[in-house]
Amino acid sequence: MYKLLIRPFLFLIDPEKVHYFTFSLIRFLNKIPGFSNLFKSIYEIKDKRLETKVFGLTFPNPVGLAAGFDKNAVLYKELANFGFGFIEIGTVTPKPQDGNPKKRLFRLKEDAAIINRMGFNNAGVDEVVLKLKQNKNVLIGGNIGKNKITPNENAVDDYIICFEKLFDYVDYFVVNVSSPNTPNLRELQEKEPLTKLLQVLQNLNNEKSKPKPILLKIAPDLTNEQLLDIIDIVKETKIAGVIATNTTISREGLKSENKVETGGLSGKPLTNRSTEVIRFLAKKSNKSFPIIGVGGIHSAQDALEKIEAGASLVQLYTGFIYEGPKLVKEINKALLEKTL
């Protein structure tokens, strides 16, 4: 139904406008008595065999929603009704920011992909905290970044602010230094600044009575040498794990006219590369830390391949937009079938 009736209509509308329209529609429907339970009955699979214990947390199932979809934590409760085991909000920055000028979101229908250059548009960490205070039972990841105006030499301060303010309201943290849409942000992926940033956050974390898992989100464009550096950094700083991968700046093999747009590419063109990165990290690290696999998951088979490559959990974004909420259920059903 989604791909035949709903998606063709939604894809007639500007991608950013339809995002907010869809949010309003989902929120409206969930306010109608009985609709929340209806969504759950259609999409949610509750089964103990799907429970996944990773970095000290128990996920009801291993399929999550990636950061960037619910940046400001305004819809995480309603989105959880589609069967997700966890929701990652953000990227959140200390101060509110508008992001890059519009138009900044582009569909590549022929490639089942999206290019975005949003630029960490968000309401700021204080507003996000207000929303998360209403959370009762959704497992939440907090994806944190720096403001555009903050120079790299002061970036650690922005991450500290977000870490401290979100600490009581998220279950795990994700340090985002891999978005291509904030100028010079990816320079923080270099070994020295990245080690320093993660160590500062981990030191703060260890001072807490109950530390929270800290993960690093990496780009798919890293070389094997850089990926080996990531393994060393995880080992040195003792962070909980890695999310592989963010969007790519590669345009290899694209057919759509919009391939000329700048920004981060997500969707099917990323499927194989993100799986390669997961497999490389898992193999070279001897599976010494958990990996969340994200990038180009448009089918249950895509998700299974990432898990077989070494991912403990997976996340959807572009696949959720192209395939609809049934994809969450299909992945969980496929995982159950493998356990039988």
UniProtKB/TrEMBL annotation:
It is a peripheral membrane protein. FMN binds at A67, G68, F69, D70, K71, T91, N143, N176, K217, T245, G267, G296, Y317, T318. The lineage of its organism: Bacteria, Pseudomonadati, Bacteroidota, Flavobacteriia, Flavobacteriales. Its EC number is 1.3.5.2. Belongs to the dihydroorotate dehydrogenase family. Type 2 subfamily. The keyword Oxidoreductase applies. Residues 50-337 form the Dihydroorotate dehydrogenase catalytic domain. This is Dihydroorotate dehydrogenase (quinone). The active site is at S179 (nucleophile).
